[in-house]
Design brief:
Layout lengths: L11 H33 L11 H22 L4 H6 L1 E5 L7 H13 L16 H6 L1 E5 L3
Antiparallel strand pairs: 1-2
């Protein structure tokens, strides 16, 4: 077994904390987008300015898009999100290499649509989430 593949697989607590940190990060990005929308409306129509109202469907779609884009980009480029860096984690393939962008996209969609799949880490002998089992990914500690 090569060195990256021998790394310790992360458990439910560190992965859960990382997921919460990532959720907060996505929330901050969404808040920044909303403030940007407010500023654009203020610049374009200063005399008749009012705060924009955003519907539930639109907000949900934008949050889904931002979360999937964020996770996909982070996992395919470095394997680490903000939460993963904070907790010392990295998403890898079965053999310790970075996951391909297509697999990162599918994993991101699966994680956003089915976050409960993370709970499987607590009962799996190899500490794999449902997404890890289906897509052949692993979440390991960066420092052994």
């Amino acid at each position: 077994m090569n060195a990256p593949a021998a790394r310790r697989v992360a458990g439910i607590v560190s992965r859960g904390v990382a997921a919460v940190i990532d959720l907060v990060f996505v929330g901050v990005v969404l808040a920044g987008l909303y403030v940007g929308l407010i500023l654009v409306r203020l610049m374009l129509h200063p005399s008749s300015f009012s705060f924009p109202t955003v519907g539930v469907v639109f907000s949900t779609a934008v949050m889904f898009g931002v979360a999937v884009l964020y996770l996909t980009a982070c996992w395919s480029v470095s394997g680490c999100t903000v939460g993963a860096v904070t907790m010392g984690l990295r998403v890898t393939g079965r053999h310790g290499a970075r996951i391909a962008p297509a697999r990162a996209l599918i994993r991101a969609v699966a994680c956003v649509l089915f976050p409960v799949g993370l709970l499987w880490v607590a009962v799996d002998a190899h500490r794999r989430s449902v997404q890890d089992i289906v897509l052949g990914s692993r979440v390991v500690y960066v420092k052994p």
